[in-house]
Amino acid sequence: MKRILLSLIILSFFASCKKSEQMPTVTTVPESVTDSLPNVVQDNQKDTLVNQNHSGDLVLNEVVTFVSKMEQQGLISDTVRLKKLHQYKYLNTDSIHYINNYPFYKIVLDDARINDGINDEGYAFMQKAKSIVDYFYYNKEKGNFISDGIIEQWEFKDNEQAKQALDIIRDNGNNIYFNTNPFACRIKNYVIIFHTRAMSFSYDQKNIFRQFTEDNKIKEADLYNGPYRM
Description:
By secondary structure, the chain is α+β, with helices and mostly antiparallel strands. 45% of the residues lie in helices and 19% in strands.
């Protein structure tokens, strides 16, 4: 009887050893690495999901290229400062998309400045926009007197819709952007609006807008230089 028990113990010992040899090896990843991985994955997933909802690019290459040029001239992203000042309550991490390391914010019509003074017919048409994306900038060379502004891109279904949207901005510009001078232009099925918070900043923005239109050879028919002569 003792021999049988001894044999069973030996057999069970070898069986457990064999199972342990088949167990997969677990590799420990440092916390500093795992902490950074989820953010990268989430950002990539967001950009992929957003691009699936659009017929073209989330942000036009012409806009991203110009933002890079602005940075070289001292006009840099204003996102951090604006959040501290609580200028735009809709700015949050869910709406931000980094393109070439520049922060662009995807917004909805009711958060756009155009919603403030447009007539009902114009508002109904602008609802056709497939996307609205904002880029905030300021002049870091201005010291205490900080000149800032927004480049706002509207995507529409086709060129014809974009032309009609530009006409609506022409007809309502003075009401929408009260006491400032907005600028706008059309590139394909996109409308790009340059606007700011104060008329004094509009003078600076005029030169920025002119550079953008010259760089992209925008035709006069696709331009809006605002309601005021500057």
